Amino acid sequence: MTKTSCKSLVKDYCTSCTFAGVHFIADNTRHWSERFLWLILVILSWYGSALLIIAAWDAFITNPISFGVETTYTDWDTKLPAVAICEANNKLMIYNVSDTLIDVCYKNNNPDPFCQTSNYSYYAKLVRSGCRQTLTNCSYNDQDFDCCQYFQPIDTDMGTCYIMNSIQTKKPNPYKMVVNMKQKRGVLKFDVLLPSMIYTLGEDEVPTITSSKYSTLKIKLGHSYRRQLTVRNIENDPLVVETKPEQRACRLHSENDGPYPLYSYSACTVLCRKRAQQRICHCNDHFMLATSVSEHCNITGMLCLHTHESELTILKPQWALHRRGMTCHCLPSCDETEITIIKDVVSSHKSKEKKANIEIVLAYLPTERFKRNVVRSRLDLVVSVGGTTGLFVGASLLSFVELIFYFTVRFAGNFWIVKNKNKNGIEQMNAININRNLETTQTGRRAIRFEKTFFQQTRPQNLM
Known about the structure:
One of its GO terms (molecular function) is ligand-gated sodium channel activity. This protein is α+β, with helices and mostly antiparallel strands. The protein contains twelve helices and 16 strands. Helices cover about 40% and strands about 20% of the residues.
């Protein structure tokens, strides 16, 4: 008999399902106490299975990453960090441009009262020096190379700088500066022709106003600078890309919405400063990246930025509520480089040359690096859930497919079969009734014809 009621369907499913112990509950031939015992056991098994599945899910969401240290240093290739040069103060250029502005704005017959109240990006570019006027005499391990071919321009929130071995420039052109067990020496040398700031950064980082003073080196002409440093990189498991930023507590280069091609912590802080300027002063300074001329501050806006300088140039942690500065919710890059400054040695020149000698040296090869491993991947989660359900309730994937199939496709099929049976039954009854009526009618007609024939045959004989 086809079952369409909910009670009969559930009982039929429990009798034939593949979940362990359930068919004992629906077996009417067993004593009620045995069926009740199996009901308790099944409930406890499902409860224990649910607890373990929830625990596996929480571990997958909150703690899928293991962060450790790797020491197989003999196989590594270590790169020297990116080096950026930002012009600090070119008084001669500033004087010449200022003198020209005075002649244009005030020493003519019709002085413009709005002169120098806007369009500051144009004047800022006038006082910036090119690469050839900034540095020269570049070499790596005593092999000379063209400075401006590898020190490429990069826009920053301090103006245009020149950076080497960065992946954030428009057309990256790195110089091979690799140190390993075969090539243990790594020394970068160049001369700086203007007062500048030197930044030693990871290849994905950019110089910013909020850059740590630990990574900077203030350059004065007539001095020699020698910076000794060490580098420790981070190696990522290939499965890291399958996790979310909240799970791994870092962002991949591709997870970027900032003004630079790739994500990094410093690039994120630039975007944070941009939004803070808009929020406080409703405009951006003329050095800010990804801004149009209409978004640049005029003289009133520049005064606002100057008034809130400490709020816009100092980073503070989220918990420092009463400290001045801005809070940026920026995660570190998953590929960031840890750069440790061992020593900065500064000495003055005996000659009167107006330049500074810079030397960046990798002090020694690293003996360890960080390793980010995925200890709970999606496959691990599937295996854990499958093992738990198999152990406690004897289920497989097909068991759940069977459950869904039984109460959807099977139920609809049973309902359709019963409906068709009822329809066919009614049609058969109607056909039977029609046949009976026809038989009755035909029998009546035959009786009438018999009576007529009988009377016709017997009537003349009676008359005689």
